[in-house]
Write a structure and sequence with these properties.
Layout (H helix, E strand, L loop, with lengths): L19 E4 L6 E6 L2 E12 L5 E12 L2 E10 L5 E3 L9
Antiparallel strand pairs: 1-3, 2-3, 2-6, 3-4, 4-5
C-alpha cells in the first residue's frame, strides 16, 4: 500500500555509541505521520540521531488504542519521508 505506514523504532539498546538527542519544548514542531492507513498530527518531543544514520522522532500522537478508544500516547518512529512530513499548525496541536 502506498504511502506506507510509519515504522516504530526499536529502542537504543546500549550497544554502540549513545545516539545524539535533541529535545523540543512541550509545544514543539508538528509532523504528519501515517499510522493505521491514516495521516495523523503528532507533536515532536525529541529527535535521536543514531551512529548508523538512522533518525528517530519521538512524538506524542493520538491513536485508536482498543475497542475504539482513542488516546494520546508517546511513540518513536524511524524517519521516512514517504510516511511522515512536517505539518502546518492544526488547531489544538502544537504552537
Amino acid at each position: 500500500m502506498w504511502p506506507p505506514d510509519a515504522v516504530e523504532a526499536r529502542p537504543w539498546n546500549g550497544d554502540g555509541p549513545r545516539p545524539a538527542y535533541r529535545f523540543y519544548p512541550p509545544l514543539g514542531p508538528l509532523l504528519s505521520i501515517r499510522v493505521g492507513g491514516r495521516w495523523r498530527p503528532a507533536v515532536v518531543r525529541g529527535r535521536e540521531d543514531r551512529e548508523d544514520g538512522t533518525v528517530v522522532y519521538h512524538v506524542e500522537i493520538t491513536l485508536t488504542l482498543h475497542d475504539g478508544v482513542r488516546g494520546t500516547v508517546d511513540r518513536a518512529y524511524v524517519w521516512d519521508p514517504a510516511a511522515m512530513h512536517p505539518a502546518p499548525p492544526v488547531r489544538g496541536f502544537g504552537p
